[in-house]
Amino acid sequence: MNLMVAARIARRELRGGLKGFWIFLACLTLGVGAIAAVGTVRAAIESGLEREGAALLGGDAELRLTYRFADPDERAWMDANALAVSEIVDFRSMAVSGSGDTAERSVTQVKGVDTAYPLIGTALLEPDIPLADALEGTGDLPGAVMAPLLADRLGLSVGDTFRLGVQDFVLSAVLMREPDGAGASFGFGPRTLVRTEALANSELLGPGTLYESNYRLMLPPGIDLDAARAEALAALDGNGVRWRDSRNGAPGVSRFVERIGSFLVLVGLAGLAVGGVGVSAAVRAYLDGKTNTIATLKTLGATSGTIFAVYFIQIGLLTAVGVVLGMALGAALPLAVAPLIEANLPLPVAFTLHPAPLLEAAFYGVLTALLFTLWPLARTEQVRAAAIFRGMGNEGAGLPRLPYLALMALALVALVGAAAFWSGVPQLALASAVGILGALAVLSVAAVIIRFAARRGSRATWVRGHTALRLALGAVGGPREGAMAVILSLGLGLTVLAAVGQIDANLRNAIASDLPDRAPSYFFVDIQSSQLEGFMDRVENDPMVSDVETAPMLRGVVTAINGQNPREMGLDHWVLRGDRGLTYAATQAEGVTLTEGTWWPEDYDGPPLLSFGAEEGAELGLSIGDAITVNVLGRDITAEIANFREVDFSTGGIGFVMTMTPDALSAAPHTHIATVYAEAEAEGAILRDLATAYPNITAIRVAEAAARVAEALTAIAAATSYAAGATLLTGFMVLIGAAAAGERARVFEAAVMKTIGATRASILASFALRSALMGAAAGGVAIAAGALGSWAVITFVMETTYRFEPVSAIAIVVGGVVATLIAGLGFALRPLAARPAQVLRAQD
């Protein structure tokens, strides 16, 4: 093989232009561009979070405590090591406007602040007044500001009064932007901002009440945050203090962006796979047209290696062009829509050129092009010199040689490995890769079956007299209509869209239909022990209440597993992030199922024992006998795991990952939680009576919490649908390429049909029918593959019941038919206008 000769021949052939390769470039550009755009947006958000970390957090660092404020020694350490300190208390409560039967109530996330707040940034209020003046209040009432949504719910205007607990406040302004809102933890209600000192008489911060105290620190410039963290945790060791700094000012947002970005990249890879089908089809069509050239080169003595190199160089150069165009598209598109994205994101975004996601997309594009072009390129070896004299092609070519198959396998492994590494969720990446390969395999088998069935159907007696249908079936079953490319490309794109639609519909059904049938009406928190008897008397004696469940509740931080810090063990699980609810129980409650171990005796008075959630324990690699240390109110409690049990959070009822023996926790200050199952018409009276009798109790309506989850699902489904739309657009480009490639054959076919008396209407009907049949076939297979994939996600990942959703399925089939009709009929004008004499004379 002579590479110089191959390069010279490749350069000369490329002088003839890129005819036949515009689909190749379009598919590669769209696939790379989609992945690059998603990666660029993700990098822009992550860069903004990193750059504005201190502003998002509200300081250089934050020390967080649960259920308590810092004691004098802890506060003295903070004051000695920070330039400024701001104390914040965060909890949920009920905001009440009015009184009696006409009172309006709503859950709110209350933030109590001191005079130093905010250390960084400013609050945006309406009217535009300083926050300090707004919280000062008027007359004898302290001031407050609240989110517009909450003010609207309560029917409040600036100057009106409302209550938190038993304390009245005057609404001084509406909180349009909270300076550290993006870095805040998840809350069940809109924000209300007050002075902490104004809560002293509210009865909301009693012993055992669920609240967090956060201490924001401004540190000396240039300080080493790792060293500062180590020093803080060493000085405050054993007090349940958690550290967060400006390097991760909004961990929840950062984690969400990372996960949704990774998922969208994987959806983009499905689009790239669709583009790969188009790339392969374009290369195959191009090389089929070069059969005479290849045969001539072999006659002149060119080796198979030289010929392979000629076209490999050509495809390589075109791949480079497509990848560069895709990178340019992926970089330019986010910049073009940057104002729109920034306007809809409540956090900073740093839109600029981010090389990493562009290079990642380029790597995916190069590997995809290599994977999908090696097969048709390898077929050049099987072209015989006799083909130039006998008019033969290489339709009957067999499998490529083993080295080419090995290289294709290596490219596939590299592609999947890169997706697993860069996505940050290797299990999801591997599952997606298996799903895409499985869908391609199913679609390939379906295409073969459809071609066989169409060929047999064209010869059946029942189609006699239906000329257009018979011709359409014959064309679909023939080798030149491109049924394989159409069904693979359109089918894969529709499969992604079908899976997204089914998953979205099932999750919405689970929230809107299944959950209310099983879930409680209200979730009550912060019930003091002295209030429990009166609370139970009200709800248990209500004939419209079907069930009440209560449990003592504390919150603690897991600080050690078998004496080791979980972070040092490399564990990153949601149970270990922040504080977690825990309870105690003497006996195994009815309905609690143990999966391993035994429950402790009712009169047990030995060292603390722990019942742990079975699924969570398995994910953490825990076993019976392991020791878990939980810090509760600054005290470390180490308990041995006695059993694992099933914990079902899907019902919205009471569920704790950790349940301890009573002696371990009962003496600590704590409150109780309760779930109340009641008829809808009784909910209002229950809330009114309990809120009036016990103002400190917070009631969370489960339906409202479910609605917030539904809103999040809407955003995720919309983002995924956009990515799936890019996949469909790529598939449509492949359809156009397949239609363009078959245009010459249809010109000849139309000429023959006109010669034997066919009208333009019957010819057009034949073309339309074959397009509709292939589109319907692709849509039908996509429904089956998408339903299978969504069933797996809903059943094994979401762990809920799957139900087939027919509306989106019908839309998928209709979309497939319409897409193929548009692509097919768009290239029907030339065949219909061709004159038979001119066409037939041109044939040898």
TrEMBL record:
Where is this protein found? Answer: Cell membrane
Domain spans labelled MacB-like periplasmic core? 23-232
A family per Pfam:
FtsX
Q: Name one GO cellular component term.
A: plasma membrane
Domain annotation ABC3 transporter permease C-terminal: ranges: 267-379, 724-830
The keyword Zinc-finger belongs to this UniProt entry's keyword annotation: no
Q: What are the alphabetically sorted keywords of the record?
A: Cell membrane, Membrane, Transmembrane, Transmembrane helix
Principal location class? membrane
InterPro entries from the xrefs?
Answer: ABC3_permease_C, MacB_PCD, Membrane_comp_ABC_pdt
Residues spanning the membrane = 21-41, 263-287, 308-341, 361-378, 399-422, 428-454, 722-742, 763-794, 806-829
Q: Which domain of life is it from?
A: Bacteria
Per the record, membrane topology reads: Multi-pass membrane protein
What is the name of the protein in this document?
Putative ABC transport system permease protein
